[in-house]
């Protein structure tokens, strides 16, 4: 089927394996955690409607960070009561939409959000369920650019800034959730456990003071590392987590994104040119950082496969056609000798791949294909040239 797909669609395009997404979601479900919990897919990792609907059918809720993600989650069939809204820069538009939909929790990250949610809810005769995203000042020991739980960063609120008593007097809100998310690609389960422990302790303290915290949102961050089999030790994670929650009545929310979809996705691209520059051999592909920006943004080395039969390894840089010197997809990698017209396959790109793509250089955003056991279908058509002009007024 893969050859047929490669024949049918022009590159670059994303190809997702449905069975991998289902297997990853089952892996989490089959942990059989012994406390009340729900997995909410972090929509930012891959907001395609078909993927959201697939995860909805696997009984996932959603974690969203914009009105757009909320809209798409609802459209994919996810109930408002299964949606969490996070994000350090929610606009009034975002907040009004989330309040009107009466979702499970709006996790507040700025103190000013509290007043707005309270007043708007009261004006609509509503009581909105909110959470507070805490900044626990924990270094997740992951890539510097994807760590989010350290003091000095823009995420969450430090506990000492919050007037918890005042929140009790705000009749438009119900503080029912505390949340943390300390970063992405975390493989040291102790770091996660440390952040969960912090949250449980705080919730216990607040509940002794007339608060009714019923949900603890432990965020996402389950590690999947590019070019490595290193992963979170779920056995240890589960053991320590169940110990922490013994005799506790909290409902636990998890927000995995990358873990669910990363290894389901491939980016197929064609070699357009091969050039020598100084001592480097540079492969120029029809994919660029417009289609896949993570290597340029985070200096990661994505796993790349060639589809030819060559055995001779050569050292290459792989670049796109964007007029920016940062437009590299890989540097200094060894690949079987590549020729013009060959295909390259970037693997492990199902998360933060297509979702971070753009139309920079007025390049159409790529096609996306979902492949099942026996069939495949297009789940996003490629932008047409007209699409690129759609919202512009001459
Ligand atoms: C609040 C929150 N939850 C969950 C996630 C998902 O993280 P991951 O894809 O690493 O699981 C993110 C990622 O940025 C996030 O900011």
Name the CATH superfamily assignment of the largest domain.
Answer: Alanine racemase
> Cα distance, first to last residue?
44 Å
Bound molecules: pyridoxal-5'-phosphate
Helix content: 25-40%
Strand content: 15-25%
Number of E-state strands: 17
Q: What can you tell me about this protein's structure?
A:
Helix 6 links the parallel strand 5 and strand 6. The strands form two sheets. Strands 1, 10, 11, 12, 13, 14, 15, 16 and 17 form a nine-stranded mixed β-sheet that branches. An eight-stranded parallel beta barrel has the order 2-3-4-5-6-7-8-9, surrounded by five helices. The mean pLDDT is 94. The protein contains eleven helices and 17 strands. The chain is α/β, with parallel strands linked by helices and 394 residues long. The two termini are 44 Å apart. It folds into two domains: 131 residues, Lyase, Ornithine Decarboxylase, Chain A, domain 1 (Beta Barrel); 244 residues, TIM Barrel, CATH 3.20.20.10. Pyridoxal-5'-phosphate binds next to helix 10. The site of pyridoxal-5'-phosphate has 16 residues, from helix 10.
Provide the descriptors you would attach to this structure in a database record.
single chain; 17 strands; eight-stranded parallel beta barrel; nine-stranded mixed sheet; alpha/beta; binds pyridoxal-5'-phosphate; 394 residues; 11 helices; Lyase, Ornithine Decarboxylase, Chain A, domain 1; TIM Barrel
SSE map:
Elements: H1 2-8, E1 13-17, H2 18-29, E2 37-42, H3 49-57, E3 61-64, H4 67-75, E4 83-85, H5 92-101, E5 105-108, H6 111-123, E6 128-133, H7 164-168, E7 173-179, H8 189-207, E8 215-217, H9 234-244, E9 251-254, H10 258-261, E10 265-277, E11 280-285, H11 294-298, E12 304-306, E13 313-319, E14 328-336, E15 343-347, E16 367-371, E17 376-380
Parallel strand pairs: 1-16, 2-3, 2-9, 3-4, 4-5, 5-6, 6-7, 7-8, 8-9, 11-13
Antiparallel strand pairs: 1-10, 10-11, 10-15, 12-15, 13-14, 16-17
Bound molecules: pyridoxal-5'-phosphate (PLP).
């Amino acid at each position: 089927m893969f050859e047929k797909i490669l024949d049918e669609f022009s590159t670059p395009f994303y190809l997702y394996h449905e069975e991998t997404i289902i297997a990853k979601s089952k892996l989490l479900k089959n942990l059989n955690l012994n406390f009340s919990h729900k997995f909410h897919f972090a929509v930012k990792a891959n907001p395609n409607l078909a993927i959201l609907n697939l995860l909805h059918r696997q009984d996932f809720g959603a974690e969203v960070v914009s009105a757009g993600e909320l809209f798409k989650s609802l459209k994919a069939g996810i109930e408002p009561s299964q949606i969490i809204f996070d994000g350090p820069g929610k606009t009034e538009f975002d907040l009004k939409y989330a309040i009107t939909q009466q979702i499970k929790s709006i996790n507040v990250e700025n103190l000013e959000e509290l007043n707005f949610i309270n007043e708007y809810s009261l004006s609509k005769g509503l009581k909105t369920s909110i959470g507070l995203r805490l900044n626990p000042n924990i270094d997740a020991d992951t890539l510097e650019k994807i760590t989010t739980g350290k003091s000095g960063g823009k995420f969450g609120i430090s506990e000492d800034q919050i007037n918890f008593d005042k929140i009790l007097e705000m009749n438009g809100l119900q503080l029912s959730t505390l949340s943390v998310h300390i970063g992405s690609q975390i493989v040291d389960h102790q770091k996660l456990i440390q952040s969960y422990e912090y949250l449980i302790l705080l919730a216990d303290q607040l509940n002794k003071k007339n608060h009714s915290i019923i949900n603890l949102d432990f965020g996402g961050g389950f590690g999947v590392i590019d070019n490595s089999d290193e992963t979170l030790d779920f056995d240890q994670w589960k053991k320590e987590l169940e110990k922490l929650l013994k005799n506790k009545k909290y409902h636990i929310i998890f927000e995995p994104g990358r873990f669910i979809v990363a290894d389901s996705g491939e980016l197929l691209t064609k070699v357009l040119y091969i050039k020598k520059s100084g001592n480097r051999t540079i492969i120029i592909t029809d994919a660029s950082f417009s289609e896949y920006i993570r290597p340029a943004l985070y200096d990661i080395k994505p796993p790349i496969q060639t589809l030819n039969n060559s055995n001779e390894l050569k050292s290459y840089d792989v670049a796109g056609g964007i007029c920016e010197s940062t437009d590299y997809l890989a540097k200094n990698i060894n690949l079987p000798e590549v020729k013009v017209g060959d295909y390259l396959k970037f693997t492990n790109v199902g998360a933060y791949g297509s979702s971070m793509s753009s139309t920079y250089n007025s390049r159409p955003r790529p096609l996306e294909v979902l492949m099942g056991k026996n069939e495949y279908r297009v789940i996003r058509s490629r932008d047409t040239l007209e699409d690129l002009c759609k919202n512009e007024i001459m």
